[in-house]
Amino acid sequence: MADVHHFTYGVYNPIAAYLLAFLGSFLGLLCAGRARDARTRSRRNRWLLIGAFSIGGGGIWLMHFSAMLGFDVPDSPVRYHLGLTLLSLVFSVLTVGVGLMVVGHGRRGVGKTLAAGLITGGGVIAMHYTGMEGIRLSAEVHYSPVLVAASALIAIAASTIALWFAVSVRGWAKVTAAAAVMGVAVCGMHYTGMAAMSIELHPAGAPQADGIRPLNMLVPIILITTATIVGVALSALQAMTEEEFTDGAGTPKRGVHAEPPQPWTLKQPSVGAIRLSPAARAVATGRITGGRPSPGPRPAVRPSPAPAPNAPPATSGS
C-alpha cells in the first residue's frame, strides 16, 4: 500500500475547507430565511434556488475540492478528470435544491424533513464519490466498507440537520451557530470518506495518470467560485430590490414610492358630478352672507279653499 497524504499544505487546507463550508452554509441559511418570508411561490423558489447554489455549490462542493488540494500520493502523480469533477458539482447543487424545495413549501413536518434529508444526503454522497472517481492515479483505489457507510450516515445526518435549520432558525446569532455546526458536519463527512480510501500502486511500467494537475484545478475552481458568488449576489440584490418596491405580491407599495401616473382621458368630471358638503352648498346657494346666515326665502301663501256650491252665503253681524 502506498502512503497517502491528506494535509500536504498543513492546516491551511482544512481551515480553508471549513471556512468555505461555513460561509456557504451561512449564506444558504440566510436565503432560506428570506424564502420563508416570501409571499409568492415564484419568489420563494428564487430564494431557495440561490440557497441551493450557496450550500451545494459553496458549502459542499467548493469545500470538497479545497480539501482535495491537500491530497497527495508521493509515489504517484495525482490528476483530475474535468468532466467527472463538474458532474459532482451538478449532483451537489441539484440534490440540495430538491431538498430545499421539499421542505420550503407547505407545512413543516418531521417526515418531510427526513425524506428531504435522505435525498440531499444521497446527492452529497454521490458528489463526494463521483469527485473521487475523477481522481486519476497510477494505482488502484480501494475503500473500507465500514468507513464508507459511516461517511454516508454523516452525509445524511448533516443534510437533514441543514434542512431543519433552513426552515427553523431565525436571527443572526442562531444562523451563525447553525452554519458553524453545518461546517463541522460537512467537513467531517469529507474527511471520513477520505479516510476510507487506500492506494495500491501499479507495477513498474504501468501507464501514467492523465488529466488536470491539482494546482491547475485552481483556475476552474476560482472561475466557478467567482461566477457563483457574483450570480448569487446579483440574484439576491434583485430579489431584495423587487421585494422592497412591492408588497411581496407584485403590487407597488403605496405611500413609500411615487404613485404611477394615471392614464389621461377625455372624460372630465362635470360640475354636477362634484358632491359638495352642506356648508359648501349653503355658500353656493347664497344662504350664508357676511359670515351670518341669511334669511331663507319667504314661505309661499297657500290660497284659501273655495266655498262649496250649496253652502249658504256668509252673513255679517249688524
Automatic annotation (TrEMBL):
The keyword Transmembrane helix belongs to this UniProt entry's keyword annotation: yes
Annotated region described as Disordered, given as residue ranges: 246-318
Amino acid composition bias (Pro residues), ranges on this chain: 294-312
Keyword terms: Membrane, Transmembrane, Transmembrane helix
PROSITE patterns: MHYT
InterPro entries to which the protein is assigned, alphabetical: MHYT_dom
Domain MHYT: 9-200
Entry-linked Pfam families: MHYT (PF03707)
Superkingdom of this protein's organism: Bacteria
Transmembrane portions of the chain: 15-35, 47-68, 80-102, 114-131, 143-165, 177-197, 217-237
PANTHER family: DOMAIN SIGNALLING PROTEIN, PUTATIVE (AFU_ORTHOLOGUE AFUA_5G11310)-RELATED
Record-given protein name: MHYT domain-containing protein
Species this chain originates from: Actinoplanes couchii
